[in-house]
Amino acid sequence: MSEITRxxxxxxxxxxxxVLTSAPARATPESMQAVIxxxxxxxxxxxxxxxxxxxxxxxxxxxxxxxVSVESPMTPEDYVTRIAVFNEKNPLPQVAMFHLTxxxxxxxxxxxxxxxxxxxxxxxxxxxxxxFWSASREVIVTxxxxxxx
Length: 149
What we know:
Elements: H1 6-22, H2 29-40, E1 45-47, E2 50-54, E3 57-60, E4 64-70, E5 80-87, E6 94-99, E7 107-113, E8 119-127, E9 132-143
Parallel strand pairs: 1-9, 3-9
Antiparallel strand pairs: 2-4, 4-7, 5-6, 5-8, 8-9
């Protein structure tokens, strides 16, 4: 097995930085929907069972607290397998993905996210039986994150 030298690592990182910063990415509602379709494999998404807790008005989009919980007994027969969070205006439409098992005890997750602008945030839960449940929230951001200088 060959080792990577410091120079090779820096060159690779610099090349990736140039690629990432040369053309700013911007998600759109259409690209968000495409990623959601990939997540659900085109299955129907039901509203309900999911509670998305994120502040309606955010002063600074750099660190926005978000929590998601799903009504589920979390038994081996009936549990949440995945929870995904999506947004429509950040550089990437998929914000977070949480994988769960019945041993989690409850279907909930919390994190902090960055929001580029006022936008819809959507949480979708996949159940063991293959059904999908969702909740969404329009978030107003006064000072966006991900802003280029």
